[in-house]
Structure formats: C-alpha cells, structure tokens
Amino acid sequence: MAQSDLQEKKASPSGQESSSALFPSYSRYPISLVKGQGSWVWDDQGNRYLDFMSGLAVVNLGHAPEKVKAKVKAQLDELWHVSNLFHIPQQETAARLLTQVSCADVVFFCNSGAEANEAAIKLARRYHQKVKGEQRYEIITFAQSFHGRTLATLTATGQQKVKEGFLPLPEGFVTVPLHDIPALKAAIGPNTAAVMLEMVQAEGGVHPVDPGFVQELAALCKEQGLLLIIDEVQTGMGRTGKWFAHQHYGIEPDIFTAAKGIASGIAAGAMLAKEYLREAFSPGSHASTFGGNPIAATAIIATVETMIEEQIPEHAEEMGRYLISRLQAAFKDEPFVKDIRGKGLLIGIECAGPVSDVVAEGQKQRLLFVNAGPNVVRLLPNLKVTRDEIDQAVNILAKVIAAYTAKEGK
Ligand SMILES: *Cc1c(COP(=O)(O)O)cnc(C)c1O
C-alpha cells in the first residue's frame, strides 16, 4: 500500500465504532484498563477499580503476581520460542507439576480453552478409532454448557446463541438436558465415544452439577466404555476451592482440560489425561506451534508452584465460604436477589431480572464483575483475595443493587 493511502486511512475520525480497525465481535464496556496489581486495576483516566472478574477467571493469583513475573522476565532473557520438534524442559516440568496435583498422567499443551477441548475431543475419537479399533466418534454434551468457539467446541456447546450463522456444524455431537439420566441413556449408542461436561456450568449461569448425577454419569461411562471428559477451563486451577472441580465429586475423569487460570494471564491451555490414553496421541497425531512454549510453560510452573506454596485452593475455599456468607447476609431481605450459589470463588447471584445495568452501575462505583447469562451476576475475585477486599466488594454490590431496585421500583 502506498504511503499516501496509509496517511489517508489514519486521518479517518477515531473513537467511533465504525472507524475501529477491529471486528465488532465484542460488545465492550466503556473502560480502558492500563494497569493491574493484585486485586486492583486502573483505567486510562487514573480511576482505580476492585477487580472481581479477574480477566474472566484468568488472573487467579491477582494481577502481576511477583513470582510469576520474575520467572517470566528471567525466561525472556533466555529463550522465547522453540519448536515442539525439540525437547522443552519447562514443558516437562509444567506437565509433571500438573500431574502431581491431579489424577492425570499425561499432558498436552496448547494456547486456549477451546483448543484444549478440541484436543480432548480429538483424543477421545482417536483412542476409540486407533487404539480400540472401534468407529466411535460421537460426543454427548449438556444443555447450557459452554465449551468454546471453534467449530467443534461451539457445536459441543449447549447454547444456540454461539451457533447462529455458522452452519453447517461438524457432525458427531449430541446435546441432552443436564440432570436427566434417562435422556443421557437414550443418547448413548454404538457411535458414542465420550461424555463431556463442566462441574459448574459457568457461562451458563453458575450452576454446580448435582453430585448424584455426576456419580451416576461416571458409572454409566465406565459401564459403556465411554470416556468422561471434564471441561475445567473455568473451574480448574483452584477456582472452586480444589485444584480441579471434579475433585469435589470423588471421580476421576479420563480426560480434563484447563486454560484460563493456568498461567496467571499468559496465554496457555492444557489437555490432561490418564495413562491409558497416552498412546492414542502417537507422534504426528496432534500438534500446536505455540503450545507449551518456554514463556507459557514457565508461567505455568511459577503459577502452580505459587499455588502449592501458598495453599491457594484452600484459601479460595475459605474465602468462597466467607463471600457467600457475606452475600447472604447483605441480600437476605432483597427481593431482587433470588439465589446465591457457586463453589469456591466462582459465585453466581441470580436476580429477578436482567443484570446488565447492575454490572454498569458497579463499574461506576469502581467494582468490576460480569454476568453469566442475562439474570446472573458472576463474581470471580482472584484466589488470593482478602476478607477486607471481600467486605469492600459486598458493600459496593449491596449499594449498587439497592440503588438499582429503587430506581426500577422493583
Ligand atoms: C472460557 C471457556 C472456554 C473457552 O476458552 P478460550 O480460552 O476462550 O478458548 C471453554 N470452556 C469453558 C468452561 C470456559 O469457561
């Protein structure tokens, strides 16, 4: 492109939606954040916010955690990227650590949650087709689930809104209602390869799955020779008060996935599995250029080591209980608040109506949080959050909801 054309494009009015060089695929809040430390972030106007969304369950150790920052900085001086055609020692260490805190034996590293789930789906199919010699391919998933935005993972997702306009969808996915064993049994056929679910449906409204249902489902998978895949992209890495949410349920999935909180905000994902699935991903069967690169793997190591040293899952469990009790006390006489639920520090407040104005008002009062579906406020503080910060957040939230219901006459 000629220099003069470049100048002309730059001269177009800025700040308006239509003039942005970005696709409008996100509806963005009118805030631009420029700095973060611990539980706090600052915008470009110098305003400070208490962050109870944590980049959507990503910065689980808070913003810019010291040990992760120091180790990544040191790694930047050594080596940024190397092909997975070479041994990458940081990746070995990261995998070893993850297997020490979970039931998994082998790990594949990628860069995001959707990719981790995509790898899980591929591993399940390949295990049946290459190791067991059975043409099984179908994955059963559940209504209101969320598994990502690639074609396969959006097809697996039990929400119509992520599928619109993207037809045709890949074959081999069936969605059944959650907590419906007869429907699940009816969906299982000779082609079924695996069942995939979240232990707490997070995007779907913060719905923890019923323990009885999980037990029955796990038993059914064993009996029918199906692989059980747990999507721990949001619930994993200490978020629910255990390293992985399935550990609350006393089950061992064949495969589970992690991403969001795994590397404190450096892009990374992982697909973790039991030993008997190792051979299904034989050399050349699956790959990722950036997956488990030295920077990302270093961030994973430092994140997991910090979590072990500081007993982060235990702290998250304790702070989760405290936050729920504070919310229950604050909203016991508030008719707009219908239910308060969650696990650890993944908490939903179901309201009697849409919460988008509540989220916006929270931002004006310098508290950041998100929704989960139209009527649920979702709180995702970092896992090192303090009682004092929880008190501050609950006070702001109580004020915001009281002002909202007064204004709306609810
Ligand atoms: C966020 C999320 C994903 C997708 O992760 P990306 O990193 O955005 O691809 C998948 N599953 C669950 C449960 C999630 O919360």
Automatic annotation (TrEMBL):
Entry keyword set: Amino-acid biosynthesis, Aminotransferase, Arginine biosynthesis, Cytoplasm, Pyridoxal phosphate, Transferase
EC number: 2.6.1.11
GO molecular function, one term: N2-acetyl-L-ornithine:2-oxoglutarate 5-aminotransferase activity
Region (Disordered): 1-21
Subunit and partners: Homodimer.
N6-(pyridoxal phosphate)lysine PTM positions: K260
Anything else known: May also have succinyldiaminopimelate aminotransferase activity, thus carrying out the corresponding step in lysine biosynthesis.
Pathway entry: Amino-acid biosynthesis; L-arginine biosynthesis; N(2)-acetyl-L-ornithine from L-glutamate: step 4/4
UniProt protein name: Acetylornithine aminotransferase
Gene3D superfamilies: Aspartate Aminotransferase, domain 1, Type I PLP-dependent aspartate aminotransferase-like (Major domain)
Top-level taxon of origin: Bacteria
